[in-house]
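User: Please fill in residues for this 297-position structure.
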């Protein structure tokens, strides 16, 4: 077997699909199938059970995957070492991020990084915090940035930057006085979906004050921060959002901050990596970069 076959196998395994692997690797589906067939013949075992359009990895595939990932990473580390020797860091960074860091923090950090290392390209996969942590734990991502620390003992959480959660309303809401948190939740609330770091942190804050979601009038639940902002602008309700995400709206008086007298809502963003994975050189350099940039954000 060769490294190319292992890359094809790993992509099919991760995506649970020959067609998805074909798209990701820019190879035809017959080529993907041929590589898998060759591997199966060489190893004298079946790697995937085909059930109609669905494929299920066999036990042999699960064993092969853990070894394949290790071999692929070693091969990539050789490229990294040669890149260093040539005084040029090359490669592609695939970073997972929850909505706030992925949308409002990473783009500017990446722009500065690419000026130093123009041969490195980026792909940012945005999902909720729990989804990113799951992908890192399943070796589908090497690095992620999330807005909540979840209970997963396979994951390293490195504090990145501090965020402030604030209560916001539409500019049309006429209420200039400070409120308590309990007064705020008497108003209709607009929330992110479960699994979002902002939603989990909001629930944690409310629970700390003895407040349950069951006692709140939830006017709407949305799958993105932008959707929540649009709902608040339209007057559907008030919300608790990251200050990073509403800076522009507050400056242009599109949204209004509701000051809370009895609480200041702080949280941290975390860089997540798998405890058993070694980061390739390009990822290590990017990690050093974003930690340095965190002091300026």
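Assistant: Residues filled in for all 297 positions:
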């Amino acid at each position: 077997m060769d490294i190319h076959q292992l890359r094809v196998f790993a992509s099919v395994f991760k995506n649970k699909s020959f067609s998805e692997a074909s798209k990701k690797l820019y190879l035809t589906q017959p080529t993907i199938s041929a590589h898998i067939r060759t591997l199966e013949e060489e190893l004298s075992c079946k790697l995937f059970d085909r059930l109609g359009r669905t494929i299920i990895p066999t036990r042999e595939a699960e064993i092969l995957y853990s070894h394949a990932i290790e071999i692929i990473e070693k091969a990539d580390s050789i490229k990294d070492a040669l890149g260093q020797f040539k005084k040029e860091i090359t490669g592609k960074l695939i970073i997972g991020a929850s909505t706030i860091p992925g949308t409002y923090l990473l783009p500017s950090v990446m722009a500065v990084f690419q000026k130093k290392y123009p041969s490195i390209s980026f792909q940012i996969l945005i999902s909720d915090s729990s989804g990113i942590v799951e992908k890192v734990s399943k070796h589908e991502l090497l690095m992620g940035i999330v807005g909540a620390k979840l209970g997963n003992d396979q994951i390293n959480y490195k504090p990145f930057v501090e965020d402030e959660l604030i209560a916001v309303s539409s500019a049309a809401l006429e209420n200039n006085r400070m409120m308590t948190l309990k007064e705020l939740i008497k108003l209709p609330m607009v929330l992110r979906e479960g699994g979002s770091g902002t939603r989990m942190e909001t629930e944690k804050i409310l629970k700390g004050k003895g407040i349950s979601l069951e006692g709140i009038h939830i006017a709407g639940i949305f799958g993105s921060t932008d959707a929540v902002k649009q709902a608040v602008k339209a007057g559907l309700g008030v919300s608790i959002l990251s200050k990073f995400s509403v800076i522009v709206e507050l400056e242009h008086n599109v949204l209004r901050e509701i000051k809370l007298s009895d609480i200041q809502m702080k949280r941290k963003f975390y860089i997540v990596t798998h405890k058993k994975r070694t980061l390739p050189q390009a990822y290590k350099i990017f990690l050093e970069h974003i930690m340095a940039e965190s002091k300026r954000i």
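For context: The first strand starts at residue 48 and ends at 51.
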